[in-house]
Specification:
By secondary structure, this protein is α/β, with parallel strands linked by helices.
């Protein structure tokens, strides 16, 4: 999947300008009334517009019981509804309905610097990558943004295991700020409805020989509200998913290109 051509405005391929003119920001939200508006406001619409790119922001209300949907509408987002609760369910809804050929995945709580999205999508727009994932390990984690047992035990251990089992070379496998081309997303055939969606995406990207790049991103305390993660429950589900996926990949062949390509900047 190589979209590079004659380089034009903003370093993008002018021959593909029409195809890549829309960047879709997909933001799942469950009871994020206090944070979702500020998150939407931080989408760098004007900066991207100067590069010849328009933006659409899709907030997927995942059966919230507060005013999340109304807050998202006031901030200018398109609001979709996914009654089936789950991190993956919400993302699958939004990514499938997104109009852009470049898709940005981001949480609604403000922990990720979505205002820096240009750096995230540039490897895709320039034809160097199909899938880009952020690294909080390389970009920096602010005080109070992540529990110590996630930062120093859970995330490093599960990232190491995922790299070991699936041949990836990623420093932060659980970073929620990601970008992927629409074609690549459709080719992966993602299915997981829960938190397993995040590792499934990376595992299938590697198995299908997508070109993966990792870039440093900052991580900060959430704007408002409470985190949805449950350390032991979600950690166990993630570990189980990695093991089951590894066994399946040894039994069910995957298709793809000539070989995996991973990079970091």
């Amino acid at each position: 999947m190589n979209y590079a051509g004659e380089i034009g405005i903003g370093g993008l391929a002018t021959s593909e300008a029409g195809a890549w003119a829309i960047v879709s920001f997909v933001i799942p939200a469950l009871n994020e009334e206090g944070a979702v508006g500020a998150t939407i406001d931080s989408v760098p619409r004007q900066k991207l517009l100067r590069l010849g790119l328009t933006s659409e922001v899709l907030v997927v209300d995942n059966d919230s019981i507060d005013g999340t949907a109304a807050a998202a509408v006031r901030a200018g987002a398109i609001v979709l509804t996914e009654a089936r609760r789950g991190y993956g369910s919400a993302f699958l809804k939004g990514l499938t309905e997104a109009k852009g050929n470049t898709l940005v995945l981001c949480d609604a709580d403000g922990t990720y610097p979505i205002e820096d999205a240009e750096a995230l999508i540039r490897p895709i727009l320039e034809g160097r990558a199909d899938f880009v994932i952020g690294s909080r390990t390389k970009g920096g984690i602010a005080d109070g943004a992540m529990p110590w047992h996630h930062r120093y035990i859970g995330n490093p251990a599960l990232t190491w295991l995922q790299n070991r089992l699936f041949g990836t070379r990623i420093s932060d496998a659980h970073c929620g700020l990601r970008a992927i081309s629409k074609d690549a997303f459709l080719a992966l055939g993602l299915e997981c409805c829960g938190m397993e969606f995040a590792p499934e995406m990376l595992i299938k990207a590697a198995a299908n020989r997508l070109r993966i790049e990792e870039i440093p991103v900052r991580y900060r305390p959430r704007f408002a509200g409470k985190p949805k993660l449950r350390s032991f429950r979600d950690g166990w589900r993630h570990l189980k998913f990695l093991i089951v996926s590894f066994v399946k990949l040894r039994v069910i062949p995957t298709h793809g290109g000539s070989g995996p390509h991973h990079g970091s900047h």
